[in-house]
Amino acid sequence: MIHTVLFDLDGTLLNTIDDLADAGNWVCAQHGWPEFTVEQFKHMVGNGIPKLVERFSPADARTPEQLAATLAEFTARYDAHKEDKTAPYPGIAALIDALNTAGVQCAVFSNKADPLCGKIIEHYFGAGRFVLVRGSRPGVPTKPDPTGVYSLMQDLHADPASTLFVGDSDVDILTGHNAGLPAMGALWGFRGRAELTAAGADALAGVPEDILDYVRTH
C-alpha cells in the first residue's frame, strides 16, 4: 500500500488560476503590455513564478534586471490577492482527511515560491492536514528536477517504494518519474488528459476519490 502521497499545489489541490491570471494581467496593464486569457495562463504556469513572469513579459522586457523588477511586482500583487478567487477543488479536503485517517502521510511539493505555499495551504486547509509543505527554494532546482523531491522524502522518512506523486501537468509526471516514483495525473487541473497521458502518467484521477482507490490498491 502507498504510505506517502506528495501533491502538487496549483491545479491539483487548489484552483489558483484566476488569481494568478489576474495578478499577471494587472502587471501587464501597468506596463501597457498585452494581456492574456485564463486559458493562456493555464499553459504558462507550472514551472515556477519566475518562469511565469518571463512568459507573460514581452520579448523586449526580458533583461535580467527587468525580469527581476517584474517578478517583485507580480509577487507583491499576487501575495495580496492570492485568496480572492482561489478555492480547493471539490472533494480535496475530504480526500486528505481520508488519507490521514488511513495512516497515509500527505505533503505538498510545488514550484510556487516556498513562503507563498505555506501561507496558502494553511489558509485553505488549516494546520495539520499536511505533514510538510514545500515550494521553490533558492538553490534548489524546480520541478521536474527531482532534487527537491529527494530532500522532501528524506525529511518525511518516506520509502520510494510506497510513495506516490500526484499532479496535473507533464511537469508533475516527469517529476515523479525522475524521482523513481509512480505519478498520477489529476484530470481536473490546468492541463488535461492528453498532456498527462503523453507524459506517461501511471494512472489518471477523474475525481479525488480515485486517488484514494489507487492508494488502497497499490
UniProtKB/TrEMBL annotation:
Q: Does the keyword Hydrolase apply?
A: yes
Gene3D superfamilies given for it? HAD superfamily/HAD-like, Putative phosphatase, domain 2
Is Hydrolase among this UniProt entry's keywords? Answer: yes
Please name the GO terms that the record assigns under molecular function.
Answer: hydrolase activity
- Which InterPro entries has this protein been placed in? HAD-like_hydrolase_sf, HAD-like_sf, HAD_2, HAD_sf, PGP-like_dom2
Keywords in alphabetical order, please.
Hydrolase
Which chain positions lie within coiled-coil regions?
Answer: none
Q: Where is the signal peptide?
A: none
Q: What is this protein called?
A: HAD family hydrolase
Q: Which organism is it from?
A: Faecalibacterium hominis (ex Afrizal et al. 2022)
